[in-house]
Design goal:
The chain is α/β, with parallel strands linked by helices. It has helices spanning 14-25, 43-54, 67-70, 102-117, 139-151, 154-157, 173-182, 206-217; strands at residues 5-9, 29-36, 59-64, 121-123, 163-165. The chain starts with a strand and ends in a 14-residue tail after the last helix.
Length: 231
């Protein structure tokens, strides 16, 4: 592994853990960044700590951002998380689990830390194929953010531009899982549920349904523990 540093957004979920494996396989020294943002479930952060440690992250920084004080999402408030939802092809059908500005806020923090570290590369696990309809998971969003980042930072203004990597953006959940398996990802460590019961995933929210379908499509068994695996 060479000493080129990267910042990797790590939630503790399936996608971000796969992205960490991709960055490591590409030879980057990975600095993982996670957030306590007032989300109703905290188990992902526990998993993120374990994943970062097991994967030999150079650093793992957990920042607190009180998005629950702002509200506007079922993930940070008391509004019920939708269950057994049918996929929608309507681009305007953005679910209540959308957190206003979340990826903008997370990427801004990642950008700030990367500039301090002298890292030019930032990795994140957004996906525009098997996703819940969030506008901040689209490739055009990330391109726009990269342009902004290189206009508004000292590094960008002095000829040391940042590069934002979303290696999963055009992959299906099946393809993401198979890529992770090739890279040795232990998906038993990951947690994706929006509304878990203790350490058990609900099996019925959008995140669980997409994950379970991805494993089925890949011909594999999801090693996560569920309350209802047939939801």
């Amino acid at each position: 592994m060479h000493d080129q540093q990267a910042v990797v957004l790590l939630s503790g979920g399936l996608d971000s853990t796969t992205v960490l494996a991709v960055a490591r396989a590409a030879g980057f020294a990975c600095n993982c960044l996670s957030f306590q943002y007032g989300q109703r479930q905290r188990i992902e952060l526990d998993r993120a700590r374990e994943i970062a440690a097991r994967c030999g992250a150079r650093r793992h920084l957990i920042l607190r951002v009180d998005l629950d004080a702002i509200g506007g999402s079922a993930l940070t408030g008391s509004e019920p998380v939708p269950k057994d939802r049918l996929p929608s092809a309507d681009p305007d059908d953005i679910p209540v689990t959308y957190v206003p500005g979340r990826n903008i806020i997370f990427l801004a923090h990642a950008l700030s830390w990367a500039e301090v570290l002298g890292a030019a590369d930032i990795f994140l696990g957004i996906n525009a194929v098997d996703y819940s309809g969030y506008p901040d998971c689209r490739p055009e969003f990330l391109l726009a953010f990269e342009r902004m980042a290189n206009l508004g930072t000292r590094a960008g203004a002095t000829g040391r531009p940042f590069r934002f990597h979303a290696p999963l953006v055009h992959l299906s959940k099946k393809e993401i899982i198979l890529k992770g398996r090739e890279l040795g990802v232990d998906y038993a460590l990951t947690h994706s549920c929006y509304d878990p019961e203790g350490e058990l995933a609900c099996g019925r929210c959008d995140a669980c349904r997409l994950r379970l379908q991805g494993f089925r499509d890949a011909g594999l068994t999801d090693p996560a523990r569920y309350v209802d695996k047939e939801g």
